[in-house]
Every structure is written in C-alpha cells, then in structure tokens.
Design brief:
Ferritin; about 160 residues; binds fe (ii) ion
C-alpha cells in the first residue's frame, strides 16, 4: 500500500533540497551583510534562514508521515559576489518567485495524481509565500532607493 507515487515523493524530496538551498542562500546573504557591518539587516536573513529550514522540515514530515524515507539531494555551493544592496534584494525576491513556482508545480502534480493530502499541504505551503513576498518585495523596494553602502548603513542603523 503506497500513499504517494514514486514520482510525486521524489519531487517532494527535491523540494526539501530546494528549501535547504534557500536556507543556504539566506545564511550566505546574512554573512555578506555582516561583512559590510550591516548586522541589523543581516538579522532579516538569519530569520529567513530559520524559516527555510522549517519549510524543508515540513516537506520532510509530509513524506515520513506517508511512510516514505526521504532522500536528500545535494544543494549547490553559494558563493556569489554582490556589489550593491539591490542585487541582494533581487536575489531574495527572485528566489521566492522560483520557490512559489516550484511548489505550484508540486500542487499540479498532486492534483493530476489525485492525491488530496499532498495537494492540501502544497496549498498550505503556497499560503506561506504571501508573507515571503511581503518581506522580499519590501526589502527590494527599499534597496532600490539606496545606491551607496553608506545609505544602506543608515537603513541598517534605523533597524536597531
Ligand atoms: Fe521556503
């Protein structure tokens, strides 16, 4: 008796690693900002890092609850050079857009395979993306106003 197809459970395993990759990207961005002395802005990404680890655990739990032992695909190295805050903001927003698309594809697959439990969890995960969009668009909007690091330092100081 299987509660989820091999194809769908494999796709969820890749989503676990997608979320773990998000976590890596955000921890890396926290490090980049700390390297510029922007410890308060770095905290935004430290929080994102924890949230992404929590998301990866939710996909993991979905599989183990259905009796699957998940495999954990490799995640790529994160070592991008950033020259300004706009690139950091764009990376944040783009990653959330890609994540929404990826979960949306899982939801479609669950519907195709008539797996309502997985479908419902995907809807719950998609609902979390509204908050992620709020945080990433807000960050990106502010970043676009700031062309110099000293301006970013004022933003950082305002967050104390
Ligand atoms: Fe996530």
């Amino acid at each position: 008796m299987t509660l989820v197809s091999k194809g769908l459970s494999d796709a969820i395993c890749f989503q676990i690693s997608h979320e773990q990759h998000n976590a890596k990207i955000y921890l890396y961005l926290a490090g980049v900002l700390k390297g510029k002395g922007m410890d308060n802005l770095a905290k935004i990404f430290e929080k994102q890092w924890l949230e992404e680890l929590d998301h990866s655990k939710k996909f993991f739990d979905l599989l183990t609850d259905m009796g699957i032992v998940p495999f954990l695909p490799e995640t790529p190295e994160v070592n991008t050079r950033f020259t300004n805050i706009v690139e950091i903001g764009r990376t944040f927003l783009e990653r959330e857009i890609v994540t929404t698309q990826s979960i949306g594809a899982l939801k479609r697959l669950a519907i195709e395979e008539d797996n309502p439990v997985v479908e419902q969890v995907m809807r719950q995960m998609l609902a979390l993306q509204q908050q992620e969009y709020e945080e990433s668009t807000s960050f990106f909007d502010k970043a676009q106003l700031l062309t110099e690091w000293w301006q970013v330092a004022l933003w950082d100081a305002s967050l104390k």
